[in-house]
Amino acid sequence: MKFSVFTASTPDWTPSQAASTLAEQGWDGIEWRIVDDRTEDGSSGFWAGNRSTWQYTGIADRVGEIARTTEAAGLEYSGVGGYQPVSDRAGVETMLRVTSELGARQVRVTMPWYRRERERTGATYGELLDRTRADLEWAAGRAADLGVKALVELHHMTITPSASAALRLVDGLDPEHVGVIHDLGNLVIEGQEDHLAAFELLGPYLAHAHVKNARWVDTGETRADGSRIWRNEWAPLRDGQASVSEYLDALRQHGYDGWVTIEDFSTDLPLAERTADNLAYLRSLAPVAA
């Protein structure tokens, strides 16, 4: 396995700072976040004003700069963290082309958020699935033309929170050009299945692994019926409810030897200490995961 960092989790660094710092720490690769997220006041955060993010607008003209930044640090691409909805065919086309030109091999396309789309359009889950399948079939065809792979992430609140749901969407498409990102932390929130069983279920569609951690905490509040209210929050790799070591071991048992990309949204440690500590922790598990 090789280890990389998704730059959604490095909001304080510019792209060049992210690439050089991660390379110096010993990471194998980087997964660039590409989305329009500038803030009016210049503030930075994971999801808005992230300084490690390449803006989507004009991205086709910045491929050379991305390549130079990555290559200067001696990092590989674990993939591209795209945010274009699979229904946005022009946007997906752009991201597939950028991925191809970079030689980054694979790029995420985002899935519909179930409740949001149901409220907006009235579509049922089945209708959303059918619509998304048609869009993904189109994306698979374009990915094949460009020699890359479109990735579907397991993500809470979308139509693909679990491996089972994702398989229902991708089954029958060419796994050379459509794959699934299995995400340890997201599954703490929704979609949890036995990891090894999920890997075996996905089979050739298991294309990438994201690792972060999360936990459920008691809010101290109750509903009108007296039941307790819980909320989820991100946690350091060692402190969440999922076991990173057991996850890596399940990947090993399955024969997975691809990228493991960290996207740690906890803030217990300063950013540079957090990324360095995460790599040290992963390396400490290498005898288990090798």
TrEMBL record:
GO terms for molecular function: isomerase activity. Residues 24-284 form the Xylose isomerase-like TIM barrel domain. The keyword Isomerase applies. The keyword Isomerase applies. Signal peptide: none annotated. Keywords: Carbohydrate metabolism, Isomerase. Pfam families: AP_endonuc_2 (PF01261). This is Sugar phosphate isomerase/epimerase family protein.
